[in-house]
Design a protein that fits this description.
Elements: H1 6-13, E1 18-20, E2 30-34, H2 43-60, E3 64-69, E4 77-78, E5 83-85, E6 88-89, E7 100-103, H3 114-125, E8 130-133, H4 135-143, E9 150-151, E10 175-176, E11 181-184, E12 187-190, H5 194-200, H6 206-217
Parallel strand pairs: 1-5, 2-3, 2-7, 3-6, 7-8, 8-12, 9-10
Antiparallel strand pairs: 4-5, 11-12
Helix pairs in contact: 1-2, 2-6, 3-4
C-alpha cells in the first residue's frame, strides 16, 4: 500500500474548496462513500477533515470514489466554504460496481434511513469491506451487522453515563473495544471523527480508519 503522511493530507486539503461525487471516480476500481442524513454540526469541518481526508487517501491508493446519499443527485451538502456536489442517488447505486463502502460520521444528528440500513446489510451479505466512523458505527449497529463482533466507538454504548442520541439497544450482542480503530473481519469501525475531536477532545481516527479500509480492499 502506498503511504501518505498526515502532513501531505493537510497540504492537499488546504486547497480544497468543494468535492464532486464523481471527481475522484476515474479509477477502474471504485469505492462507494455514503453520506449520512441529518443536520450537520459543522459541515465545513466534516467535509474538509473527514470526507476530504478519506478521498485523498483513497485517490492516492488508486481508487475512484463515488459519493451517494438517500437525498439523491442534485442535493448538495454545503457549509460556508466547503461543498459536496452531484451526489448519486443511493437507491440507484449498484453495490457490485464497488470494491467496498465507507461511511463518514459527518456529525449528522439522526442515525440512518431504512434504505441506508438495508444497504449496509447488503454490503455485509456480499462480503465487501465496510468502514464506518463514530456516528456511522451506529448505522451498522442498527443494521444488526455488529452482533458477535468487536467495534470501536467514542465511549461504551452500554455505559449508563454515556447519553448519546443513538439507540443503545442496537449495540446489544456486540463487544465494545475502545475509541480507536477496530477491524473484525471485513467490518472496520473508528471511534471518533473530527467533530468528536473538536467537541470532546477524543482523537480523530479518520486517517487510521481509511488506511485500514484501504488495506482491506487492497491497493491498486
Amino acid at each position: 500500500m502506498r503511504k501518505i503522511s498526515i502532513f501531505a493530507v493537510m497540504v492537499i486539503l488546504a486547497g480544497v474548496i468543494s468535492f464532486s461525487s464523481q471527481a475522484f471516480g476515474q479509477s477502474g476500481s471504485k469505492v462507494l462513500m455514503i453520506i449520512r442524513e441529518g443536520r450537520l454540526v459543522d459541515p465545513d469541518l466534516s467535509i474538509r477533515m473527514e470526507v476530504g481526508t478519506m478521498m485523498v487517501l483513497l485517490k492516492e491508493a488508486g481508487f475512484g470514489v463515488d459519493v451517494t446519499s438517500v437525498y439523491g443527485e442534485g442535493d448538495d451538502i454545503s457549509g460556508r466554504s466547503q461543498k459536496i456536489q452531484k451526489l448519486l442517488r443511493l437507491s440507484e447505486v449498484k453495490l457490485d460496481d464497488y470494491v467496498g463502502v465507507i461511511i463518514p460520521c459527518m456529525g449528522a444528528e439522526n442515525v440512518a434511513s431504512p434504505k441506508m440500513v438495508t444497504t449496509v446489510k447488503d454490503v455485509v451479505a456480499k462480503g465487501k469491506p465496510i468502514a464506518a466512523s463514530y456516528g456511522a458505527v451506529a448505522v451498522l449497529a442498527k443494521a444488526g451487522v455488529l452482533k458477535g463482533r468487536k467495534f470501536a466507538f467514542m465511549k461504551d454504548p452500554s455505559d449508563p453515563l454515556f447519553k448519546g442520541y443513538f439507540d443503545m439497544t442496537d449495540f446489544e450482542g456486540a463487544t465494545y473495544s475502545g475509541p480507536g480503530v477496530v477491524q473484525d473481519g471485513k467490518i472496520i469501525t473508528g471511534g471518533a471523527c473530527p467533530i468528536v475531536e473538536a467537541n470532546r477532545g477524543i482523537q480523530n481516527r479518520t486517517f487510521e480508519l481509511t488506511q485500514t479500509f484501504i488495506a482491506a480492499i487492497g491497493t491498486k
